[in-house]
Amino acid sequence: MATQTPTQRKAAGKKAAATRKRNEAARGAKNTRSAAKGTATTARRNASASSRSTQSAAKRTSTTAQRTASSGAQAGVFTLEYAAQQAERAVLIPVGATLVARDNVVGAVKPYTKATNLQRKVRTDLNRFERRGNTARNRLQREVKKTRTRVERELRQRRNQATRVVKRNRREAERQVKAVRREAERQVSDVQQTVTAVVS
């Protein structure tokens, strides 16, 4: 190995120092680029997340607004439908009542429209009226019989009571008459005895 002169050593030292500086500068630039790249990636990620969050919030807000508008529109539609239904009911109720009354009249008259139906209906009605009259007659007869029995029982009770009163009064009168007769006979006897005593 050749011996270097001081000048060569100095030049070699300067060269080595320059190389080190270049290497350090390259490493610093590389680190700076890496840091910048990481910062850019983080920024892109943050921006993407913020964009997605903003988009989701905007989408939710839009959906809520659409639902609110739809609810308001449906409420308006429901109100209009309810008013229309009420107006329709106001028209349909009298019409339906008239038709029901007509059906009742037709149903009452229909059995009498044909001769055979008329005869059968008249016969059925007459039989029903007869049964109804028979039932009413039997009920009236029972009521009359019940009333007659009650009146006869009351008359018997009153007659028996009057008979008992008459018998009691007659016995009392006969007893009083007997008592008066005995008193009169006693007085007559007393007078006769007095007269006989005076005469003798």
Secondary structure blueprint with pairings:
Layout lengths: L5 H104 L5 H85 L1
Gross morphology is: elongated
Oligomer: single chain
Rg of Cα set: 70 Å
Total number of strands: 0
Q: Average pLDDT value?
A: 75
Structural class: mainly alpha
The helix fraction, in percent, is over 70%
**Number of discrete helical segments:** 2
Major sheet characteristics: none
Strand content: under 5%
Question: What letter string, H or E per element, gives the SSE order?
Answer: HH
The N- to C-terminal Cα distance equals: 231 Å
Low-confidence stretches: none
Architecture overview:
This protein has a domain at about 115-200. It has helices spanning about 5-110, 115-200. It is built from 2 helices and no strands. Helices cover about 95% and strands about 0% of the residues. The chain is mostly helical.
